[in-house]
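Reading a protein record of the kind used here takes only a little practice. The record below shows the convention in full:
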Amino acid sequence: MAKFAVALVAVHALGPAALRRALVTDLDPTRGRMTARLITGLYTLYLDELTHTRALAWLRERRRRWPATTNPHLLLTRQTAEMPANPPVSGTAIYTIFEIVGARATQLRQDRILDEAAATADPVHLMRLFGVSVGTAMHYVYAAHPEKQAVIPR
């Protein structure tokens, strides 16, 4: 689970809340796609080879460990797999995964978007790639390319 979660954040810039909201039905392994449940709505991720491989491995492990679970969430722990209320994985579990990696999930997400902004300087590209809003995309473009920020003459 940890390797899959890290790939989703490091490559696709999903935040911790989106990781927690993900459902098993959101993952389409045959097409290499995943629907992300972002604050702005549903967004389709096209999985790269690494993330796709990690997704398949996690699905196999999930089925092996908890074949009878009714929890619809993609990421599970021993506790959430067996709870009748079917809760999502806790924020603490996500935090622990990234603590082991040596980074915060939110920081890794921000670094990924900033890296892409530095490479492209195209806010529309960022919006399409990561499902971010116009304001967020512009924030990252200006952070990566301060010279692009318009200066209003006085």
